[in-house]
UniProtKB/TrEMBL annotation:
Keywords: Methyltransferase, Transferase. This is Class I SAM-dependent methyltransferase. It holds the Pfam family MTS. Residues 28-193 form the Methyltransferase small domain. It comes from Alicyclobacillus fodiniaquatilis. Its EC number is 2.1.1.172, 2.1.1.174.
Length: 199
């Protein structure tokens, strides 16, 4: 069976490396490896998402499908009073995410799960998601529903998706689940959606 970045236990031979990430006036060295998403560097969708997200200073954020942790690593520095939960189904990615966010200490915790655990209900101010497109539309839409459950009232889901990967249908699905949805970024086929839970 071929490994994917959403494989629970990747069998790909380890080949650890360090990459440079520079975004939001933050420069970091992050550890990556075979068997994780975008191992060679920060992917363009995540970069555009990071450039658009704004958070309350004391945000409690779920980094959903965190991979090796670039979103938390960057935004945890931009917002030094924020707290984070990182979730991914990929054990190897989650190990790397823990290493890449270790500087934040108790501000971060990691959970290995295929989606948001059901006991997390109305706890987060924000959920940030670059969805696992290759896992299929049903999985992506389930993550939307998970995010709605886990957000506080007034909480927000940030999603990046390309037009060729189904941005219009994803927007319609978000409208079915959230009180308000807006497109906060649209360029070169990339969209960043902001969905708010108000009722």
């Amino acid at each position: 069976m071929t490994d994917h970045y959403y494989t629970h236990s990747p069998q790909a031979k380890r080949d650890p490396r360090v990459i440079q990430v520079a975004v939001r006036d933050i420069e970091l060295q992050l550890q990556t490896d075979n068997g994780v998403f975008s191992k060679a560097g920060l992917d363009e969708a995540t970069r555009r998402l990071l450039e658009q997200v704004w958070l309350p200073s004391d945000a409690f954020v779920l980094d959903l499908g965190c991979g090796y942790g670039p979103v938390t690593a960057v935004l945890g520095k931009v917002y030094p009073d924020s707290r984070w939960v990182l979730v991914d189904v990929n054990e190897r990615a989650l190990e790397l995410a823990a290493l890449n966010t270790a500087m934040f200490g108790e501000r971060c915790q990691t959970i290995c799960s295929d989606g948001i655990p059901p006991d997390l209900v109305e706890v987060f101010t924000d959920v940030i998601l670059n969805p696992p497109i290759r896992a299929g539309k049903a999985v992506v839409y389930r993550l939307f529903e998970d995010a709605h459950r886990a957000l506080q009232m007034g909480g927000r889901l940030w999603v990046v998706i390309q037009k060729k990967h189904g941005a219009p249908s994803a927007y319609a699905e978000l409208e079915n689940r959230f009180s308000e949805v807006e497109t906060v970024y649209r360029k070169s086929g990339y969209f960043v959606f902001l969905a708010k839970k108000l009722t």
